[in-house]
Amino acid sequence: MMKTLAMVLTASALTIARAAAAQQPTPAQPPPAAAQPAPTPAAAAALQPAPAMPRVTLEQALELGRRFNPSQVQAQQNLRVAQMGVTQAWGAYLPSITGSGTSTTGSSQKFNSITGGTINGTANSSSFGLSANVNLFTGFQRGANMRAANATRDLNQAALLEQDYATDLNTKQAFFNVLSTQELVGVAQANLAQNDQQLRLTTEKLRLGATTRVDSLTASVAYGTAEVQLIQARANALTAQASLGRAIGLQGMVAATPDTTLEIRLSSLDTAALRQEAEAAAPVVVQAQATVTAAQASLSAQRALYWPTLNLGASQRWAGSVLFPWNGTPAGSSQTYTGTWSVSLSLNYPIFNGFVREGQIVSADANLTAAQAKLRDARLLLDANLTQDVTALEAAAAQIDVSRTSVAAAQESLRMQQERYRLGASTIVDLLTAETALNQAEVTLVEARYNYLIARATLEALVGHTL
After folding, report:
1. What CATH number has the domain bearing residue 148?
2. pLDDT tens profile 320-374
3. pLDDT tens digits along 379-427
4. Residue 219 and residue 72 in one domain
5. What are phi and psi for residue 346, nearest 5 degrees?
6. Residue-range definition of the domain harbouring residue 297
7. Can you give the CATH number for the domain in which 119 is found?
8. Distance between CA atoms of 121 and 111, rounded to whole angstroms?
């Protein structure tokens, strides 16, 4: 958009120049020199140095991102719950033990045969006991539930792995966006300084009568355009810094610490080996495979409902006529606690339950079929995305080389146009065109460098390991 604005402003200046040349002759005495435009209040505020803010390295940003990213935290808690599910599945092999106890007190009336009246008093009683139950046979359901719990845990581990790389990719994109916008501020500052120098030169030439007022006005428009570009670049940098702060869970804006080692390019990739590794360890495939395993275990657990179950139970109970066992036996009473015990063995075989089992089996089988289809699609998607991301990485690397050559060419073209304009052999339009070309080439180079880093991070998130 800024490039389009500059072209429109330049075209407007050329129109003014042609009209002035057709209607007015060159004056014998040069007109007053055009003053350098003063920045507007908004521009002046934008041109001030940014306030100090916390800085983070990429390693620090990745650590904070994994700690505070909501999706990451949710994936971690899902894995925690799944691990407890495995513990509960193991607990099904152990007996369940229950303790119980009661104490009651109430009024009682007794007949006194001597006096013929009644005696009011209280009656106390208490009892306590232990009971245990263990499933001797559950129709292989415990084993199926254990496999399902392990599969669910593996599924959540795979989901956490995928979320790890998704969070890292999101953090890297925010981090590299901050670095990119910070560099683009520098490019905009250099462009503004270049236009300031050109405006001063044009103003001086106008004072000496060596150029027209149209050239001075055109240079002023170019200076204003560069000023607007710097304002926008700083606004983009602040926005990116705020986004980085949110991505790593810090309040306010956060700056990124540059690191030249990040831009070391990868050597030639062995795409065949990379594809083979990705098919075995890519997070999206691992998660899809874990989903299939979990669905298979769930289907086995539902089929186990057709088998009978065998349960063994035992209990021991004590009862007495005291309110609390630790108070002992009432004075003058010889009654003690009496104990009873029982052992039971029960067999349960569900003959018919209104097709509930059949419905659960059909539902589990449908989930398994859908999971297998998703696994197949995940492998195909991985293959397609791997081809796309490797190609994008290679294209980004090539774009860096082309952009560096373009910057060198634009610098040489600007140097030549500056000299030609100084000697009066070219117009202000030629000079401003060369300046615009250099500015755009520098912007493209910055974008190309960080596009390469983002393409690399995207490929790493896809294959599930650092390249």
Report:
1. 1.20.1600.10
2. 777 666 555 555 454 567 888 999 998 888 888 888 888 989 999 999 999 999 9
3. 898 889 888 888 888 899 999 999 999 999 999 998 898 888 878 787 8
4. yes
5. -125, 140
6. 2-92+139-306+353-463
7. 2.20.200
8. 11
